[in-house]
Amino acid sequence: MNIRFSERASGLKASEIRELLKLTEMPEIISFAGGLPAPELFPVEEMKGIMQEVLDTQGRAALQYSSTEGYKPLREIIANERMKPAGVNVSYENIAITNGSQQGIEFSAKIFLNEGDIVVCESPSYLGAINAFKSYRPKFVEIPMDDNGMIIEELEKALAENKGKVKMIYTIPDFQNPTGRTMPDDRRKRIAELAAEYEIPVIEDNPYGDLIYEGERHPSIKSFDKEGWVIYLGTFSKNFCPGLRLAWVCAEPEILDKYIIVKQGVDLQAGTLDQRATALFMQKYDLNEHIEKIKKVYEKRRDLMLDSMKKYFPAGVKYTHPVGGLFTWVELREDLDAKELMKDALAENVAYVPGGSFFPNGGHENYFRLNYSCMSDEKIVEGVKRLGKVLDKYYK
Fold first, then answer.
1. What does the pLDDT average to over 43-61?
2. Are 220 and 204 contacting, i.e. CB atoms less than 8 angstroms apart?
3. Using one digit for the tens of pLDDT, what is the confidence trace for 319-332?
4. Where does the record place the Aminotransferase class I/classII large domain (predicted)?
5. Residue range 162-173: average pLDDT?
6. C-alpha triplet 155, 143, 295: angle, nearest 5°
7. Which residues, 6 or more positions from 329, have their beta carbon under 8 angstroms from its beta carbon?
8. Fewer CB atoms inside 10 A, N or C side of the chain?
9. pTM (global) more than 0.85
10. How far is CA 201 from CA 112, 119, 192, 271, 384, in A?
11. Do residues 257 and 305 both lie within one domain?
């Protein structure tokens, strides 16, 4: 067929990694490749009752169209119960509901990026954001990380060298995907200051902030934002139910209006029934209690994975020790290619995500990401043992 796609669509290519990971769906493979919450922790029984109550008491309204910005009671709950723990005092008028945080990322690109604009991000960064941004043909300036996240001196240097060209800073300050690293308060504060100084929007993507296993929760970058340059993306996917596809954007009204207008042209609104059911759940149950339950399980699995890596991985393999979130990040010798090693791993019926795709400008093939949240204890130990067997071949 001679189909004339747009230039933007013609430039979109299937991810090598996504094609590779289709193999991990086979039941015999222990897959550390996803970023999935544990399904056994979903509040299925509670949600059965909630859905029935919504249909019994609000049925016609719940099955009707609703406003693009979202169901007001849910936005009020988000402002009062989800943003305040992040150190942000806002009203429901600063909140708009999206179909997952991925939609908020895509909308951010649509709103702020023209072809050739510069996106500043951590190196490495979230693969889903990189792919969303790439369709708008920006240039990427990657900021190196240390154990405390984005190195601020490198960010300051990049902004000074590209003054007037940077259109967006994208960051995941809490338990970053893919590294699991967390940014300290002074760096968060400095990013907010730099955003105001250079008048550049910061997209603060925070899907993992509730999942802290050690220490106290850090205030968000948004909490240090005095002029409105920080746009906060939150979600119910990692702390509640990802299948509901409910997330939010928190921003100043002048900016939020653009997100609402873009959403009107994309899908009109998030699902009315799901929004009303989620709001009712929050009114009847304590989401924080549910989060504490999740955290205990994930912390145990994190510890088990790190202990197993210490036991079974050969000397010389480095990996992060996250204090929260869902991931650890593995560094191999520079001469090794994690994508090539994946073939050996699949032969041992174990899988991970090769790290090269997390770097928007390429390279760095000697890394891979492991997820520990959705595997049983037995599979974590056995899977890491199999990976250790693969790595031993290259570290003799």
1. 98
2. yes
3. 999 999 999 999 99
4. 49-387
5. 98
6. 105
7. 124, 178, 179, 180, 181, 319, 320, 355, 367, 368, 369, 370
8. N
9. yes
10. 8, 10, 9, 28, 40
11. no
